[in-house]
Amino acid sequence: MTTSEPPQPQDAMLRQFLETAARVSAHRKKYLLAGPARMASFARRNPLLHKLVCWLKLHSSCSPERLLEEAHRLASNANREMSPQAPSGSASGAPAQQTPAASSPSSAWELYIDGCRRAPDGDALISACRSACGDTFLHERENLTQLYRRFKPKEIGCLGSGCLNDVPVEVFLRGGSRVCLVDWIPGISEKSFAFGLIRPRDTGYACLLCNLPGGGAKFCKNFKAPARSAHVCDNFCLLEGDPPRCTRYETGVQPRFLAGDATLGRATSFAAGAERIVASANSLTECFQSLLQECRRFCWTARQTLDIPDGKLDFVSSVMVMSQFEHEPYEFFSKLLVKRFGQEQILAQEESLRPLMEELRAELFRMQIDGHVREMYRLVNKKRGHVYFSVELFEKHPERKDFFLAEGTPFMLETLGNYFFFDLEALPLDRTLRRVDVGKGHSVIQSYLLTPAPRPRPAA
Ligand SMILES: C[S@@+](CC[C@H](N)C(=O)[O-])C[C@H]1O[C@@H](n2cnc3c(N)ncnc32)[C@H](O)[C@@H]1O
């Protein structure tokens, strides 16, 4: 007699999903026509069926193989979510921490946000961003270096680290600090870090990692103690280009690269809502109204913290991250709308939709500001920690000579003030307010050094 293992909940889930996939595949037209009431009933009775039909509505002409592939991917994700090993919660009691992004994106939003890494010329994009924005962010780099020398923090987290234009990561590592670089675009800071390692010298090249305290092995898995040259290790293999790189560089334990949403998952929650709502709504107006409702009811309550323990960081930086909040998630939503309703229909209704558009953008912005400020406060050590925060305060009007206040500024200041005190003496004031030009745009950027309040203000 053979004994068989009782079916695991995950197996049952996988089987159920694959059956669902076969059903959708066989009755594709019927599911494509499913209206909001049926979609809502799918969502209640069979969330997996609901996810697959949502996806199908956005990819209505996909091949049967692609549909099955997607079904399989959703099944695996659902499995992972059900798995007992899934992260269970943070020290602060938040429902779930973000794990580093898996290598294969699992939603249209992840695909969208991963665009840079997946683009055939992704390296060129990062290279271009570094050379176009390096000067703009030089000031931030200098401020951060100055503050680093003053406070000597041991644990540093840079939120929205992106192409590292503003992050003097080599200074931090040379000083022996542990650094966590966080961006929701997976891989962007790893690549940028690799782009900054190799410098030409009179006679050959030098790798930054060779002279770091603790030995290069901590910083690169392929590091081999240099016997031949003092400037590069014995595994150095040059890739010529702009900038020159080492083909053998492989991420070590430091710096730590973390892919995650620094708004307590609110941007991600907005994107997930947008994907579901656009797939099932009957009209543009319904999309805006439902997404606005989704924001107010659900996204504002998202508490998905980054995978860094509470109070762990002595120093947190957030440079111009907030200024981008509304941009990517709203752009993603707009792209879904164009795909579903077509550019012409959107243009025809633009005027009448404008108030709803503005309301949605403002809501999206506010809920991310609130999430980001709470996340910074959670991360920073309440006794000795500091936060360096920069944001675009004014933007020049494209046709006029004067500037206008950037969206959400009063709300941002009020929210910061609920959680932090403003240290206006650590940096000279002329280093905290400046005009920058990026392409044809002109802005005024303000930087703040913040110290956490012992307790958030009751109003928060
Ligand atoms: C203007 S850049 C800041 C400069 C950046 N350190 C650089 O050198 O390119 C803003 C960065 O924040 C990231 N970002 C925006 N929203 C984010 C979020 N909710 N969570 C994590 N990163 C975010 C963007 O991907 C981008 O890399």
The count of DSSP E runs of length 2 or more, i.e. the number of strands, is 13
Associated small molecules: S-adenosylmethionine
Q: Work out the helix count.
A: 16
Low-confidence stretches: 1-10, 81-97, 99-103
Taking all residues together, what is the mean pLDDT? 85
Radius of gyration computed on alpha carbons? 24 Å
End-to-end CA span: 64 Å
Relative strand content: 5-15%
Q: Helices and strands: which structural class?
A: alpha/beta
Describe the model.
The chain is 45% helix and 15% strand. With 460 residues, the protein is α/β, with parallel strands linked by helices. The protein folds into 3 domains: 10-81; 122-258, no CATH class; 261-452, no CATH class. The strands form 3 sheets. Strands 1, 2, 7, 8, 9, 10, 11, 12 and 13 form a 9-stranded mixed β-sheet that branches. A two-stranded antiparallel ribbon has the order 3-4. The termini are far apart. The model is unreliable at 1-10, 81-97 and 99-103 (pLDDT under 50). It binds S-adenosylmethionine. Residues 129, 133, 137, 160-166, 183-185, 261-263, 267, 319-321, 324-325 line the site of S-adenosylmethionine (SAM).
